[in-house]
Design brief:
This protein has five helices and eight strands, in the order E-H-E-E-E-E-H-E-H-E-H-E-H. The protein has helices spanning 27-34, 129-135, 148-161, 182-192, 200-206; strands at 2-7, 40-46, 67-70, 73-76, 102-106, 140-146, 165-174, 196-198. The strands form two sheets. Strands 5-2-1-6-7-8 form a six-stranded parallel sheet. Helix 3 packs parallel to helix 4. The structure holds pyrazine-2-carboxylic acid and zinc ion (ZN). The site of pyrazine-2-carboxylic acid (VGL) has 8 residues, from helix 3.
Length: 207
């Protein structure tokens, strides 16, 4: 059975948000079109406490884009985004949220970031996503959302490690691309680990 994983489609990652991924609003109608084709739709949400260690504002004298050590891991600093319970952390109104069966929240631990929907960046704690998918009988996951070079990439790599056939629906994703080429490199990294790459059109033609 196939599940659609909708990664971090939240106001702060959309144009006008605090960590806006340029062009990310483009993927919402595509995701809406895809959702009815899946037996299970799981959406992740980046869901940080105000004092989260990934926010530049919580490191004296630091700016977004700089890298610090956070509990032994390299951490890129970001603008304040997706604070639990804030408007920026909500799904946009344009997303067909009635199609979402489960929501998995990540990034709740102040001392560690969580790009993947499965584990934190230190792989210390699981979100429960793998167990949820396995209980539901899922064997294949298709990924859409933001950002291709962060949360989508790390969720896809963990999905492969967890034994799922893993497909990236490339044109229904959008990346940050901090340094030009990050999205291309992310896609290559996913492919070389066994992630299949396809398009919305190809998915829709199959169903
Ligand atoms: C993300 C940076 C920081 C993402 C989340 O959803 O890709 N990127 N937090
Ligand atoms: Zn975040």
């Amino acid at each position: 059975m196939k599940a659609l994983l909708v990664i971090d489609i939240q106001n702060d990652f959309l144009p006008g948000g605090t960590l806006a991924v340029s062009g990310s609003d483009r993927v919402i109608p595509l995701i809406n079109e895809l959702m009815p084709s899946y037996e299970l739709v799981v959406a992740t949400q980046d869901w940080h406490p105000k004092d989260h260690g990934s926010f530049a504002a919580n490191h004296e004298g630091r700016s977004p884009g700089e890298v610090v050590d956070l509990d032994g891991l390299d951490q890129i600093l970001w603008p304040v985004h997706c604070v639990a319970g804030s408007e920026g952390a909500e799904f946009p109104e344009s997303l067909h949220t009635h199609r979402i069966d489960h929501i998995v929240r990540k990034g709740g631990d102040t001392r560690v970031d969580s790009y993947s929907g499965f584990f934190d960046n230190g792989r210390r704690r699981s979100t429960g996503l793998a167990g949820l998918l396995k209980r539901e009988g899922v064997t294949e996951v298709h990924l859409v959302g933001v950002a291709t070079d962060y949360c989508v990439k790390f969720t896809a790599l963990d999905a492969v490690d967890e034994g799922f056939r893993t497909v990236l629906v490339e044109d229904a994703c959008e990346g940050v691309d901090l340094k030009g080429g990050d999205v291309r490199m992310a896609i290559e990294a996913m492919e070389s680990r066994g992630v299949e790459i396809c398009s919305v059109e190809e998915v829709m033609a199959e169903t």
